[in-house]
Amino acid sequence: MPTPETEPERAPGPGGGRFAVVDPATGEAFDEAPDMRPDDLDAVIGRAHRAWSGWRADPAARSIALRAAADAVEEAGDDLTRLLTREQGKPLSESSTEVARTSARLRHFADLTPRTRTIDDGRPVHSEIRWRSLGPVAAIVPWNFPLQLAAAKFAPALAAGNTVVVKPSPYTPLATRMLGSLLAAVLPEDVLTVVTGREPLGARLASHPGIRHVTFTGSVSTGREVARAASASLARVTLELGGNDAALLLDDADVEKIADRLFWAAFRNCGQVCMAVKRLYVPARLHADVVEALAQRAKTVAVGPGLDPATQLGPLNNAAQLARVERLTRQALADGARAAAGGHRQDGPGYFFAPTVLADVPPDSPVVTGEQFGPVLPVLPYRSLDAAVDAANGTGFGLGGSVWGTDLDRAEAVAERLECGTAWVNHHAELSLAQPFAGVKDSGVGVAGGPWGLYGNLQPFVVHRPREA
Ligand code: NAD
């Protein structure tokens, strides 16, 4: 087994290059990572292919190894947490939760095995459905939850008997590299490899003929490129893409009771959550109260460097994301929106944007119709519930949605009308490891999570034989 020192991808990029990693709380580079050349993937994927034959052969050994991997993540929890906060920006408490979810995923999938089934359809034939692994899987991951999303891909893929090549975002390569080193010490050699580098590394990985499944999380536009790239080898594709989740308040909502939960559903991880509440539809009668309750929280939440234990909201992850959020907010303000809180970037170093609550936003403003992915929440009044449901469903996205009210049956009946993969009543973005996770419309292709995630990494193999000799 490789030690972290001998692991190939830990050498200075095979091409010799390295790239800087920036601390979003200061805007300054604090470390660097290897910038792998796309051509060097041939060797990595070749090794992943050779490691596959041993790994796929023994499900019991896989379970044991994945449990050991979960233990290793837990033991290194503090180091992973700090490094994740340093490169991603989120508060330590959120990084710690992310690390815990990373080990929980490994444990969850360590215990899942595919079920062999027989077909009993009256024919004089014994037919059995078995499951086979696919081969090397490419896991391409964004910067908002680098560890948790990587684990959401490699845990089911490994449990199914595949080997995996993980490529984190160049904005957040370091915690994933640390995770890769930890897991290399407990998994057989080359079963899991972390590669880091700038584009076109991801594009090359997605199109590589040795990859049999590309599982990608990221933006809709890159998702389309990944699908195109993978079509060259006809590899299976799973895409978990952007969202623009709506939350709908009903007229019986208890504003003070739900305000905290609603606020954090929009602002956690500085709004950089695919399933954050990104638009809030509120009965006109409650609009002023809701804007006030959320604005008051936005003005008083502790914004600062994630490494400060008092911080509740960190910076945005990178300069491009800050510029995007600023542009969308400025446009909304120019179009007539009012900032009840925030509305501008914060003075000083780092990628900080003041938590922003927008009222009087034109419904066709890009901050409403697109995915702003930042600490900005437009609050839109409605007079007709049907019109509000139509507006909630009126974008190309369909990841999640929520309905908030006191009458739970009525709220659930409205949630049933949302065009999305997961809906909540009086909550948002809380997922179970055991649930299927899928977006509709532009928000995704394929199903991850629970047994669906496992079978998404498997190929059915059917054997028929006569019942009698
Ligand atoms: P992104 O699409 O820019 O990048 C995602 C990953 O793809 C990164 O590793 C990036 O380096 C890589 N990449 C870039 N170009 C590529 C190419 N041509 N081929 C292959 N890989 C390429 O996304 P991001 O900005 O890192 O992350 C934010 C986006 O991710 C948001 O849209 C967010 O909604 C989405 N997201 C979705 C989910 C979900 O589960 N649906 C979860 C988290 C984030």
From TrEMBL:
Keywords: Oxidoreductase. It comes from the Bacteria. Signal peptide: none annotated. PROSITE patterns: ALDEHYDE_DEHYDR_CYS (PS00070), ALDEHYDE_DEHYDR_GLU (PS00687). Residues 17-454 form the Aldehyde dehydrogenase domain. Belongs to the aldehyde dehydrogenase family. This is Aldehyde dehydrogenase family protein. It comes from Streptomyces tendae. The lineage of its organism: Bacteria, Bacillati, Actinomycetota, Actinomycetes, Kitasatosporales.
